[in-house]
Write a structure and sequence with these properties.
This is Protein kinase domain-containing protein. By secondary structure, this protein is α+β, with helices and mostly antiparallel strands. Helix content is 34%, strand content 19%. It has 8 helices and 8 strands. The chain has a 5-stranded antiparallel beta sheet with strand order 1-2-3-5-4. A 3-stranded antiparallel beta sheet has the order 6-7-8. The longest helix has 20 residues, at 109-128. Bound molecules: adenosine-5'-triphosphate and magnesium ion.
Length: 249
């Protein structure tokens, strides 16, 4: 049955993004623990109905490489759309590499290979349903308790994307050059973002802005992405096979 606000018990806050807040909730009727993401949207009821209609597509997504969707509804005085999804106890790859960095460690190549495999399989699945993810980055790649790696936060609702009016901060660094240039873009743009995500996880910091250019303005950065050679994965601990995998796409 449908997930409703009144059936949820708030457990704790899991994280915060540019678009909203993610909380751990308990769904009393099913006994499931879920992650609830709440996003402030356009207050127009017609727009909100459209967003909920578009999000219903997520119910048809069924893959071990995609975070399961339980339902969406209007929340908090009808100005917020909340989306309930599978709770991934391991957190995001961003959480995981940040913890590794804080302990002075780094994620090794065997794990990078598993990430690449899982993300590619998730993308094959989405692309077979004619969905471009549009927001592949370490914080949108989640890890379950068992260690399975899954994609979340893909762009199924054009109306939601419009409603959340991209603030030009941080998240755009994963955009492929063809998107920055305003050209037609397609599934290949997700592969660009996968490459940047693998570089980021392996070096414990974002691939862009590029090393040695920490203070680029957003305009300089976008110009850099479009003009400069593609970022590559570096380090003596990384094999040539892995370097080539990231470089050739
Ligand atoms: P941005 O707003 O730039 O996209 P983000 O992806 O980190 O950044 P959110 O999607 O709001 O923002 O997620 C915030 C944090 O909540 C994530 O970094 C992750 O730690 C946590 N989180 C999100 N979804 C889940 C989930 N299904 N299970 C467990 N933790 C989650
Ligand atoms: Mg996210």
């Amino acid at each position: 049955h449908d997930v409703q606000a009144k059936d949820l018990e708030l457990l704790k806050r899991l994280g915060e993004g540019a678009a909203g807040t993610v909380r751990l909730v308990y769904h009393k009727p099913s006994g499931l623990t879920m992650a609830k993401k709440s996003i402030s949207t356009d207050p127009d009821p017609a727009v909100q109905r459209q967003i909920l209609r578009e999000l219903a597509f997520l119910k048809t997504c069924n893959s071990p490489y995609i975070v399961s969707f339980y339902g969406a509804f209007l929340d908090e005085g009808e100005t917020t759309v909340s989306l309930c999804m599978e709770y991934c106890e391991g957190g995001s790859l961003q959480d995981i590499y940040t913890r590794a960095r804080d302990r002075g460690g780094v994620i090794g190549e065997a794990v990078l290979a598993r990430i690449a495999e899982s993300v590619c399989k998730g993308l094959v699945y989405l692309h077979s349903k004619r969905v471009i993810h549009r927001d592949i980055k370490p914080s949108n790649i989640l890890v379950t308790r068992k260690g399975d790696i899954k994609l979340c936060d893909f762009g199924v609702s054009g109306e939601l994307i419009n409603s959340v009016a991209e603030t030009f901060t941080g998240t755009q660094y994963y955009m492929a050059p063809e998107r920055i240039k305003g050209n037609a873009y397609a599934v290949q743009s997700d592969i660009w973002s996968l490459g940047l995500s693998l570089i980021e996880v392996s070096q414990n910091e974002p691939a862009l802005p590029p090393p040695g250019h920490p203070d680029l303005s957003i305009f300089e950065l976008l110009d850099f992405i479009v003009r400069q050679p593609v970022p590559v994965i570096q380090g003596d601990h990384i094999s040539d096979v892995c370097k080539n995998f990231v470089a050739i796409w």
